[in-house]
Task: structure prediction
Amino acid sequence: MNEELELFRTTVQRFIQAEVMPHYERWVREEIFPRDVWRKLGEQGLLCVDLPESYGGAGADFLFSMAITEAFSRANCGAIGGPMAVHSDIVAHYLLNNGSEEQKRAYLPRMASGECVGAIAMTEPGAGSDLQAVRTTARRDGDDYIINGSKTFITNGQHCDMVIVVARTDLDLPGSRGTTLFLVDAATPGFERGRNLEKIGLHASDTSELFFQDIRVPASAILGELDRGFAVLMGELPRERLALAVGAVAAAEGILAETAAYVRERQAFGAPLAGLQNTRFKLAEVATDIRIHRSFVEECKGLLLSGELDTATASMAKLACTEMQGRVADTCLQLFGGYGYMREYGVSRAFVDARVQRIYGGTSEIMKELISRDVLA
Result:
């Protein structure tokens, strides 16, 4: 198992070096990576690897999926690794765990091949962390539902071929009991992509507004049960938050490696920066911080594999690891001095890319609220 996993890690790293790194800076400048990258990822077997083979996956487990996340994060390519995780680790598993057999057959093999790119539309202009405040509606009309509303900050919004839409189906019930998930094809009349949003980081990923105007979908497009969408969301969030934590640790490891190489070469006061006690002590602090969090995410991986990862523990991992990533990025940029503020150095990209980690997937403040409920239960 370990040997297989290491061989797979090598395969992912080779793909990044051959197909991503030569073009990544251009994609950052263009603020989106090309659609055909999804096809290449599918051809190399790097999408949906932990789906059963019957649905186009490799039949691997969570560790193999996280090996992909870690490789892209460590290589400072979060603007591709993040969208891949949304597609493979979130959307695909919503379908796998909650979809009908017909829905799985229709989408999962095409998602594994890169032919169909998935997105999930939760956040709205007036409803971010508070999913119970969603205003997008799906009104019953005969055997169909008519969806109206808008979403924002949607990863893969420009590339998606299918999107899971969170909508209210019973306005007389609280959001926790009157929300439903729908599978919506991007080709459906009334679906409109907004602009590719301009962000301070993760420039090469597409993050979009989506609009739904009188979109008609059949009742068979419901993912899970009617009015039970909130329960589905809550059930899938621990995996999503652990994936973010895993990526945060790997990104911090990558930043540390780049910084250690820089301070060995950079001269100050007639000697390498690595010779200064402040530099050595800062790197010692960073390395220790990373090592502690690496141990925690490895524990959480095991809990997820055994079906024992609870909401509070996943929230702890997401909170602690993404906050750590921010500390590491800031400390390492400081060691680069003025060069750390220049875009030609990867540490500057790592710094701005890290900032959103404490926001999406549930803000640090929401994580603290969830953890405190468990402590006080």
User: Anything to note?
Assistant: The chain has ten helices and ten strands.
